[in-house]
Design goal:
alpha/beta; about 25% strand; 2 domains
């Protein structure tokens, strides 16, 4: 099985080709270009340089967020368009779960964090049990102070992953014991993890309905809030 994975839910744009046996190829761009400018060229270039064609794909996996409204929407629309035009199965994967997946062999809890601005974050808590990464809490939009309060009673090691966590590192370390902060490439969302999680679902016969698949924003956009105020 060969799956194309797409993650544009944050400012990092990542695409990958993942087979049942291995990660075939991955491209990660941490640039100022918008996803609308770079995603399709990045995707086509990756497939072409890997020696494959789009017709070789067996499925598509896409990061659903939470994260950037515009970026997530572009990624989901692109993935759904490809799935429809090529007649492929599609699965949506949580961006937070994909970030945690890169640390799935870590003992203790994994806390992925994505910037939601105004000292708020998108986050959740995960850990591996019976070799399966499982959510210990529902994904949520929280003020950083509220996240720290919720985690202060956890008695095990906590591994924080995500670029924005460095901004709150000192505050977290002062109030929570047993914390670890991932600062290498695993702190960035990676489509390879989205692809591996996607293959797990597809192999199990678990796919999403194309026209029902939507981004997971976890909050309304500012434009929606402003429209509601004006009407």
């Amino acid at each position: 099985m060969l799956v194309l994975a797409v993650d544009s839910s944050t400012k990092v744009g990542s695409v990958s080709l993942v087979s049942t046996e291995r990660l075939v190829a991955e491209s990660l761009l941490h640039l100022d270009q918008t996803h609308s400018q770079r995603l399709m060229p990045q995707l086509i270039d990756l497939v072409d340089r890997s020696g494959y064609e789009l017709d070789d794909l067996d499925g598509i996996a896409v990061a659903l967020g939470p994260g950037s409204f515009t970026g997530t929407r572009i990624g989901v629309v692109t993935a759904k368009t490809l799935a429809q035009s090529l007649g492929l199965s599609i699965v949506g994967i949580s961006t937070l779960k994909a970030m945690a997946y890169s640390l799935k062999y870590t003992s203790g809890y994994i806390c992925p964090v994505i910037d939601a601005r105004r000292k708020r974050v998108f986050t959740g808590l995960y850990r591996t049990s019976d070799e399966q990464l499982r959510a210990e809490t529902e994904e949520a939009l929280l003020a950083i102070d509220d996240l720290i309060t919720e985690l202060s009673s956890v008695q095990e090691e906590i591994y924080f992953v995500g670029e924005i966590i460095q901004e709150y590192r000192a505050q977290i370390s002062e109030q929570i014991e047993g914390t670890h902060f991932i600062t290498n490439k695993f702190s960035l969302p990676q489509a390879g993890a989205v692809g591996e999680l996607g293959i797990e679902r597809l192999v199990a016969g678990d796919e999403d309905q194309l026209f029902e698949l939507t981004p997971n924003y976890l909050k309304r956009s500012q434009a929606e809030i402003q429209w509601e105020k004006n009407n």
